[in-house]
Design brief:
- The chain has 419 residues and is of the alpha/beta class.
- The protein has 2 domains: 196 residues, UDP-n-acetylglucosamine1-carboxyvinyl-transferase, Chain; 200 residues, Enolpyruvate transferase domain (UDP-n-acetylglucosamine1-carboxyvinyl-transferase, Chain).
- 30% of the residues lie in helices and 25% in strands.
- It is built from 12 helices and 23 strands.
- The strands form 6 sheets. A 4-stranded mixed beta sheet has the order 2-15-17-16, with helices on one face. The protein has a 4-stranded mixed beta sheet with strand order 4-5-3-14. Strands 6-7-9-8 form a 4-stranded mixed beta sheet, covered by helices on one side.
- Helix 4 runs parallel beside helix 5, helix 5 packs parallel to helix 6 and helix 7 packs parallel to helix 9.
- Bound molecules: shikimate-3-phosphate (S3P) and phosphoenolpyruvate (PEP).
- The site of phosphoenolpyruvate has 10 residues, from helix 3.
Amino acid sequence: MESQITIRPMGKTELTAMVPGSKSYTHRMLICAALADGLSQVKNGLVSEDTLLTMNALNKMGVSVRKERGSFWVNGTGGSLGRYEDPIHLGNSGTTLRLMCAVAAMGVGTYTLTGTERMQQRPILDLAQALEQLGVPVETNNGCPPIKIQGTAIKGGKVSINCGVSSQYLSALLLIAPYTQDGMEITVTEGPVSKPYIDMTVSVMKAMGVEIKRDGHTWFSVPGQSQYQAGEYMVEADASGASYFWGAAAITGATIRVAGTHSASCQGDSRFAYILKSMGCRLDETDEGLAVAGRDLKGITVDMGNMPDVAPTLAVVAAFAKGETRIENVGHLKAKESDRITAVITELKKMGVQASCTDDSMTIIGGKPKGAVIDTYDDHRIAMSFAVAGLLAPGVIINNPSCVDKSFPNFWEEWEKLY
Ligand SMILES: O=C(O)C1=C[C@@H](OP(=O)(O)O)[C@@H](O)[C@H](O)C1
Ligand SMILES: C=C(OP(=O)(O)O)C(=O)O
């Protein structure tokens, strides 16, 4: 792929866009299927850089996972894993790295999980400390990967965890809890941020046969000595990927339906359509999917703590709305693929947008953004969000467009349909 892509003006007034399967569901279903006993088929799973990293890590830990005829096929080993002594490279996939730390803790021997330079700056300490409470020997590099984990027969019991930076730590513990001797009683001491991802974890566990008791998002009790059931599982459309098409509709006035999306989804990012509604858009939901129809947009104040991945999409849409938009409670954006608060504000300013930030918020004054060369910081969501801006502001050029491979490898082909 070229090293830059120039975004062309919006051509269509109405269309249905296709997005791949949800990244978050795919990671979870591959892991649960790997821990189940027997063969599972994961249908419509996302095939992208990050989900392939999860597949490869599971293969290295002794579970056969392959992709064939549009599905992932997972030969679950009922929770027994093999040794793997070389470092396991997990790119910049935070979900893979955090969830696989817990899986490694169930294994045999010592595993080293690491990733890109940026992944080595993304925190893991709170998860490491929770695993230590469970008797798992763990070593980090100043609270970040590389992380060394010694596989242990985990007895389980009470554990507390700080999820003020990431919900992935809690998802990680929940996913392995059924395989402990006594189960786990987990108390969340801070947060969790990104709550819907916890609900998704609980719902995948339930779909695969493990019921959890809980008190909101701060206390969870998972039975031990239980197991996921192998079977046929279906991944729904990715709501985070849908946000770029809904955002495109919002700023251009077009009507865009995203196939397979629905408002009852466990994916918090499906609520993004409702945020656009509160800015003035119309929504229409049919069996085919959720559609956004763009109208005059007005700025809003909104807490995006539960939808971090679509905060950049919202910031770009806000640049075209009337008045001020305040995006609050998004401190955890600083620990993503890039520091997304700084990246979004820097790039919006290049487009002449009045934008500012604090450590956990962004403020954008809508207007008439102009074209610019956008740096993407190797962050798929920065590339895809600013593609939205280019539909209306002539001359937006996206650097390093192939970074979308992380979550949406055919994004640019799908985007062509808008012209
Ligand atoms: O559990 C998951 O699948 C995810 C949780 C979120 O991370 P945090 O909980 O770290 O905010 C989100 O940003 C990430 O893309 C996927
Ligand atoms: C933050 C993201 O992913 P991860 O944490 O898995 O790297 C993302 O997809 O926006």
